[in-house]
Each structure stands twice: as structure tokens, then as C-alpha cells.
What does this fold into?
Amino acid sequence: MIDQTRTKYPSAIFYGGTFNLDYLQAFDGLYDFSACYFPSLLDAYASMAAAVKNYGADKKFYATVSPGFDPRIFWGPGSLLIPREMASITR
It folds into this structure.
């Protein structure tokens, strides 16, 4: 499917939502949006970005940016809170 889409739209860029480097065989890069849900993943971003870069100079890794992330209205008062004015994460 990706090959067919690349033929029709040669400037299309494809990113896989995973930390699995094997996906870079087909995708232009990887992304992760789950750090706002799992703060332990924040530490993995630097190593993941380096691993993607080592895989190939043309590959990219995109990480989550979530200023003001506040899911307490959905998940309750114990949910992860990232205050807009702070760089730290609290619970």
C-alpha cells in the first residue's frame, strides 16, 4: 500500500506510530504521542531519536509535545497533569 501511494504521491511522507525500528524499512520515520499518557516514555525519547538517526540519516523521529495536557475531566483527579506553565510532570 505504501509503495502504491508513493507512486501516486511521490512527495508523501509516512510515519509509523511505534518504537519498533523494523518499521523503518517501510516508513520514513517514527513517532510517539503517548508520553502525555505514560511519562516514563519521556526518558526513551532521546535514545529512540538516536536509534532512528543511526538507522538512516534520512529517517526522523517525532515525539510528543503536550503543553497544558490535563485529562482530569475524563480520567479523574489522579490523572497525569502537565501544567502549561511548567516543564515538569506531576500526578
